[in-house]
Specification:
Largest sheet: 10 strands, mixed
Oligomer: single chain
Order of helices and strands: EHEEHEHEHEHEHEHHEHEHEEEEHH
Number of strands: 14
Structural class: alpha/beta
Radius of gyration: 21 Å
Distance between the termini: 31 Å
């Protein structure tokens, strides 16, 4: 696909109306709103940006009516008010994607904008819209013929072939289309009563990994290695319990707001996660703007993760890791731990290192095979 000049992307974007976003008309020097480059009269220069924000109010994929207030603008209103603890993280907000005449037209617009920004090697967060927009993000990598890993946080596993709504079945194309550019897929936070047993069996046959909400809540630290290698990361607010995200009308149960912030921090800590989406937020369903505040704090923790990511060294710099060689179940392998971040990696029989946790290391020390290691070996 030929890349468009960045200046022409204005054809696909609505600028921001900052007077509608700031209640006090002006932000303090200590608030994020004073430290973000905006698309107001002209597109900001993203060359020095570490993170690019984009809004999208496309909900036709879920059958939802269009909200009178842009979901992304509702989040921006809360996000810009937060205090800026991360001066080293430069943010450019390039406004909102224009809705196409058809849903497919919006997908195309998203793909064009995403492709150009990735060409600048920038991290992207898209806010708002239904979860099927994640397919448009995946298709950017597919057109680049880049093989990736993806992680999705959602109460549902969107493989419903019987539904006409793309938001219910977009994973079918993403996981099974040919040629396929998905190396691995992780699903975090599903709620069992929303998922048919056969769906989990299908996921397992594909050697992809699923983690139910209860498992995530019991030991959320184990989710960091799951997310670490994912270029594509999506978070549907249906995964957050209603008390913490009132705009989630699907279920009273799920992850807490703190869990959501922690998982977003893990995504920010990843060296490779460069396409992130937060989906399913409709301001019309919100109460006291609490869901918008929740999402804004998730964005703040993503930035916190980006700061921690800067301490991570590539595995090739072995002097920055503690290395432990051991044998478990007659398999000789090695574990490495970053001296600054404390994050762990373990070696597969082919010599490749994959993300793991301290728990995996302790399991191996007890002469047992870590399940994460076994699953990776099965995938080949």
């Amino acid at each position: 696909m030929a890349f468009h000049s960045f200046d022409t992307l204005v054809d696909f974007l609505h600028p921001l109306n900052l007077s509608l976003l700031s209640e006090n008309k002006e932000y303090k020097d200590t608030q994020l709103g004073r430290h973000i480059s905006f698309f107001e009269d002209s597109l900001p220069d993203i060359s020095s940006a570490d993170l690019v924000l984009i809004g999208c109010n496309e909900t036709r994929g879920s059958g939802e009516p269009i909200a009178s207030i842009s979901a992304a603008d509702a989040v921006r209103k809360q996000f810009y008010k937060l205090y800026n603890w991360h001066n080293e993280i430069k943010i450019a907000d390039i406004g909102n994607i224009k809705r196409g005449a058809t849903l497919y037209d919006t997908y195309v617009a998203l793909k064009i904008v995403f492709s150009e920004i990735l060409n600048y090697n920038k991290r992207i967060i898209i806010i708002g819209g239904s979860h099927d927009l994640m397919l448009a993000q995946y298709n950017v990598y597919a057109e680049m013929k880049k093989i990736i890993e993806a992680t999705c946080i959602d109460a549902f596993i969107n493989l419903d072939a019987g539904s006409d709504l793309p938001a219910d079945n977009f994973l079918i194309e993403m996981l099974t289309s040919e040629p396929n550019f998905l190396r691995h897929y992780n699903h975090i936070g599903f709620q069992s009563y929303f998922v048919h047993r056969a769906t989990l069996e299908t996921i397992d046959r594909l050697r992809f990994d699923c983690y139910r909400a209860g498992i995530v809540k019991e030991n959320i630290l184990e989710m960091e290695p799951v997310i670490r290698n994912s270029e594509l990361f999506g978070f549907d607010i249906s995964a957050i319990q209603n008390s913490d995200a009132p705009a989630n009308l699907t279920t009273p149960n799920g992850l807490t707001g703190e869990d959501a912030c922690t998982l977003m921090q893990y995504a920010g800590m990843s060296l490779v996660a460069n396409m992130i989406g937060i989906y399913g937020y409709n301001p019309s369903h919100d109460v006291h703007e609490l869901t918008a505040k929740q999402i804004s704090q998730m964005l703040w923790y993503f930035m916190e993760g980006m700061m921690k990511c800067r301490l991570e060294a590539p595995l090739s710099e072995r002097n920055k890791f503690n290395e432990y060689k051991l044998i478990f179940a007659e398999v000789e392998t090695a574990f490495r731990q970053n001296k600054k971040t404390g994050r762990w990696w373990m070696q597969l029989p082919n010599g490749k290192f994959i993300p793991c946790s301290y728990k995996d290391y302790k399991t191996a020390c007890n002469n047992e095979i870590p399940e994460r290691w076994m699953r990776a070996v099965e995938r080949g």
